[in-house]
Specification:
heterodimer, A: 451 residues, alpha/beta, ten-stranded mixed β-sheet, 10 helices, 21 strands, 23% helix, B: 250 residues, Rossmann fold, six-stranded mixed β-sheet, four-stranded antiparallel β-sheet, 12 strands, 33% helix
C-alpha cells in the first residue's frame, strides 16, 4: 500500500477544482484524456531515485511542497520587464505567457505572415480545437512514460500553438516567453506547446523560461511537442533562466519526417533543480537531427538532461553535443540514449558530452547509452570530464591577462563550441557575456569583452 | 635592466639553480647555452613566474623592482615576454581576441589608452608582415592545429605585437627547419633596439648564426660557469660542453 504524499494530496485537490472548470472550455475528448492522465499520475506518483531514469535526481524537494495553481498576473509585468527577460535586441515575433497564461497585451504577433498561426492554446481549445490540435496534442508524449508528462497533460490549459503551413518560411525568429512571478505560496504552472511545421516549412523558435522575482518558489512543468514534416527545417532554442528558488521539469518531444532538418540548442542556467527530457524520433529517411546543449550552473543547483534519439528508419544522421560547466557544489546529470532499430541501416549517430568542473565539490554523472539493433551503422559516443588546464592559464597570464580573466576566457572557450553554433546573434552575444563572467559572479565582473 | 643575484631555485624539492648571477642591460642580446638538465628552462620559468619553481634564495630585479614578488601577469605588464618552448593550444579562443585582451591589459597597466578594433587590426597587420604570417591565422584558435614552426612563429609574432622590454626565448629554435628558423630569427632581429634586451636560451649554436648575441653564457649544473662574446658559441659547437662542466663534488 502506498501512502499519499503531501504533494499527491495537493495535486488531487488542485485537479478536482481545475478539471471541472477546464471541462467547460475544452473539447470533451481532451477532458477525457486529461482525466486518464491524472489517473495515471496518481497510480505512479512522483519518480523515485530507485528508478533508473531518476537515479541521480531526487524530486523529494518538490514532493515536500504544497502548490497552488499559478494565477494570471500579466498586470504585474511591464513591457520593460518583457524586453529585459527576452533576448535583448532580437527582432522577433513574440508570444508571452505570465504564470502559464497567455497575455495578448505583452505579446507581439502583428507581423506574422499570412497563414502562419501563433496563438494561445487555451483560445484554440475554447473554440473547440482544430484538426491539427486534435490530431497532435498529446500524441507524442502521452502520459504513460513519465509522471511529469502525465501531470502536465492532466493540467493542460494554455501554451503556444504554432502552425507553419506548407512551404512557408518564417524569416524572423519566434520567441515563446514564459515569465513566472511566483507568489507567497509555492505555485505551479503547466506550459504546453504544440509546434507543427508542414512540408518545406521553415521556423526558428526560441522557448524561453524566466523568473521575474528572485526568491520565490515555483514549479514549471512544461511539455513541448514538435512535428517536423518532410523537407521542413526547424531551429529550436530553449533557454532556461528560472529563478534560483524554482523547479523546472521540461519535456521536448520531436518527430521528424523524411529529409527534414531539426536542430535543438538547449541552454540551462537557472532553477535550483531542473530536469530536461529531450526526445527525437526519426520516422522518415534522410533526416538530420541535432541536439546541442549547454548547462552552466553553480551553488547547489542540479541540472539533469536526459536525451533520447530514436532511429526508426534507415539513412538518418543525428548529432549530439552537450557541454556542462559546473561550479561550487553544483551537480549535473547527463544521460544520452540512442536507439537504432533493426531497420535503421546506414544510421550515422554521434554523441558527445563534455564537462568542465570548476570546483572540487562540483559533480557530474554522465552516461551514454547506445542500443543498436542494425548491423550497418556508424555510432560513436564519448564523455569527458576535466578542469581548466593550468598550462593554459599560465600561458594567458604570461601575456599579461589577469588570472581571473584567464579563467573566464578558458571557460568561455570551453562553451564556445556550443555558443558559436547559435545562429540568433543577439542570443549568442548574450550568452557570451554570461559565460565570460561565469567564474565567479560575486567577484568583480570580467574586464573582457567579446569582439 | 635585469639583475639576477645568487639565484637558487628548486623543482619538486630538488635544487636546480645553485647560485646563478646574470646582468642584462638594455639593447643587449644574451645567449644562455648549456647541456640538457643544466637549468636553462628553470631560469626561464623563474623569470616568467611559473609556480612549479620555488626560489629558495637570491634575488631577481627588473628595472630595480623585485620580480619575484610579482604575479606572472604583472611581469608581462612590466614588459617581460617569454616565448615558450612548448606553446599551448587554446581551442575556442581566437588569436585576435587573445592578443587584443593581452595587449590592452598591458596598455592599461602602463597607463596607455586601450586600442580599439581598428587600431589593433592595423598594428597586427603590420607585425604579420614581419613574420610572413597568413591572414587567416588571426581568426584561428590560439595555436590550435599549428605546426611546430607555426607555433614558434606565433610566439615571435605575439612578442612583436606586445612590444616587451625584455624578451626571453626558451629554446625557440628547437624543432625548427632552416626556413622557419630564418623567419623566426629575422623577426627577432627586427625587434632588436637600444631599449630592448633579448635573452636566448638554447642548446645549439645554430640559432646564433642568425641572431648574433653580444654575450654568451654557459650554464652548467645550475650556475653560469663561463661567459664570453659570440666566439664562445663557436667554441662550444666545436668542443661540446664537457670541458666546462663542473666536477661532481665542486
Amino acid at each position: 500500500m502506498t501512502t499519499a504524499t503531501k504533494t499527491d494530496q495537493c495535486f488531487n485537490g488542485l485537479f478536482s477544482s481545475f478539471h471541472e472548470e477546464a471541462a467547460r472550455r475544452q473539447p470533451a475528448e481532451l477532458t477525457a484524456l486529461r482525466d486518464a492522465a491524472f489517473k495515471q499520475f496518481c497510480a505512479t506518483g512522483f519518480p523515485s531515485v530507485r528508478e533508473e531514469e531518476w537515479r541521480f535526481t531526487n524530486v523529494a524537494p518538490v514532493e515536500r511542497l504544497s502548490f497552488e495553481l499559478a494565477k494570471p498576473a500579466a498586470g504585474e509585468i511591464s513591457p520593460d520587464q518583457v524586453s529585459l527577460a527576452g533576448v535583448r535586441g532580437l527582432d522577433s515575433h513574440e508570444i508571452v505567457f505570465v504564470n502559464g497564461h497567455f497575455s495578448a497585451e505583452l505579446s507581439n504577433l502583428q507581423k506574422l505572415p499570412q497563414g502562419v498561426i501563433v496563438c494561445s492554446l487555451a483560445e484554440i481549445l475554447r473554440e473547440g480545437g482544430n484538426k491539427t490540435v486534435s490530431a497532435e496534442l498529446g500524441r507524442q508524449t502521452g502520459f504513460d512514460k513519465s509522471a511529469f508528462q502525465a501531470l502536465n497533460l492532466a493540467f493542460v490549459s494554455d501554451g503556444a500553438f504554432v502552425h507553419i503551413p506548407k512551404g512557408v518560411v518564417l524569416a524572423d525568429p519566434l520567441e515563446i516567453l514564459y515569465l513566472s512571478t511566483g507568489g507567497d505560496q509555492p505555485t505551479v504552472s503547466f506550459p504546453r506547446n504544440l509546434i507543427v511545421v508542414e512540408e518545406q516549412g521553415q521556423l526558428t523558435v526560441l522557448e524561453n523560461y524566466e523568473g521575474v522575482n528572485a526568491g520565490n518558489t515555483y514549479l514549471t512543468n512544461a511539455v513541448t511537442e514538435i512535428v517536423v514534416r518532410a523537407h521542413a527545417n526547424v531551429d529550436y532554442y530553449r533557454l532556461q533562466c528560472e529563478d534560483p528558488g524554482a523547479f523546472h521539469f521540461g519535456s521536448l518531444q520531436v518527430q521528424q519526417e523524411e529529409q527534414s532538418n531539426f536542430r535543438s540548442h538547449a541552454i540551462t542556467l537557472g532553477a535550483s533543480l531542473s530536469r530536461n527530457d529531450l526526445g527525437l524520433t526519426l520516422v522518415g529517411e534522410n533526416c538530420e537531427g541535432t541536439l546541442n546543449g549547454l548547462y552552466m550552473i553553480g551553488q547547489k543547483q542540479l541540472a539533469d538532461t536526459h536525451t533520447r534519439i530514436d532511429h526508426a528508419v534507415p539513412n538518418c544522421l543525428s548529432h549530439e553535443l552537450y557541454k556542462g560547466i559546473l561550479k561550487d557544489d553544483a551537480r549535473g546529470v547527463f544521460n544520452g540514449y540512442i536507439l537504432v532499430r533493426p531497420d535503421a541501416q546506414k544510421t550515422d549517430a554521434k554523441q558527445t558530452n563534455k564537462c568542465l568542473l570548476l570546483s572540487p565539490t562540483a559533480q557530474i554523472n554522465t552516461n551514454p547509452q547506445l542500443e543498436i539493433y542494425a548491423d550497418d551503422v556508424k555510432c560513436t559516443h564519448g564523455a569527458t570530464i576535466g578542469q581548466l588546464d593550468e598550462n593554459s592559464i599560465f600561458y594567458l597570464r604570461s601575456r599579461g591577462i589577469e588570472e581571473h580573466d584567464a579563467r573566464c576566457l578558458l571557460t568561455y572557450a570551453f562553451a564556445n563550441d556550443i555558443i558559436r553554433r547559435i545562429k540568433i546573434e543577439p542570443l549568442r552575444n548574450q550568452l557570451e557575456d554570461i559565460v565570460l563572467v561565469a567564474q565567479d559572479v560575486k567577484a568583480k565582473p570580467s574586464t573582457l569583452e567579446v569582439k | 635592466m635585469l639583475e639576477i643575484r645568487n639565484l637558487r631555485a628548486n623543482v619538486a624539492d630538488k635544487e636546480i639553480l645553485k647560485g646563478l648571477d646574470l646582468t642584462v642591460r638594455p639593447g643587449e642580446v644574451h645567449a644562455i647555452m648549456g647541456p640538457n638538465g643544466s637549468g636553462k628552462s628553470t631560469l626561464a620559468g623563474v623569470i616568467s613566474g611559473r609556480e612549479i619553481y620555488e626560489v629558495t634564495s637570491g634575488e631577481v630585479l627588473f628595472e630595480g623592482k623585485d620580480l619575484l614578488e610579482m604575479e606572472p601577469e604583472e611581469r608581462a605588464c612590466e614588459g617581460i615576454f617569454l616565448a615558450f618552448q612548448y606553446p599551448v593550444e587554446i581551442p575556442g579562443v581566437s588569436n585576435t581576441y587573445f592578443l587584443k585582451a593581452a595587449l590592452n591589459s598591458i596598455r592599461k597597466h602602463q597607463g596607455l589608452e586601450e586600442l580599439d578594433a581598428m587600431d589593433f587590426l592595423a598594428l597586427v597587420k603590420s607585425k604579420m608582415q614581419l613574420l610572413n604570417m597568413d591572414n587567416d591565422l588571426l581568426n584561428r584558435s590560439v595555436n590550435e592545429g599549428f605546426s611546430g614552426g607555426e607555433k614558434k612563429r606565433n610566439e615571435i609574432f605575439q612578442m612583436a605585437v606586445l612590444d616587451p622590454k625584455l624578451a626571453l626565448l626558451d629554446e625557440t629554435d628547437s624543432g625548427l627547419d632552416i626556413d622557419a628558423l630564418k623567419l623566426v630569427a629575422n623577426g627577432v632581429n627586427a625587434l632588436r633596439s637600444p631599449d630592448r634586451a633579448v635573452v636566448l636560451v638554447t642548446h645549439y649554436q645554430r640559432l646564433l648564426d642568425y641572431i648574433v648575441p653580444d654575450f654568451v653564457h654557459v650554464l652548467s649544473a645550475g650556475r653560469i660557469v663561463k661567459s664570453g662574446g659570440k666566439e664562445l658559441a663557436q667554441e662550444l659547437e666545436a668542443k661540446g660542453y664537457s670541458w666546462l662542466e663542473e666536477p661532481v663534488n665542486a
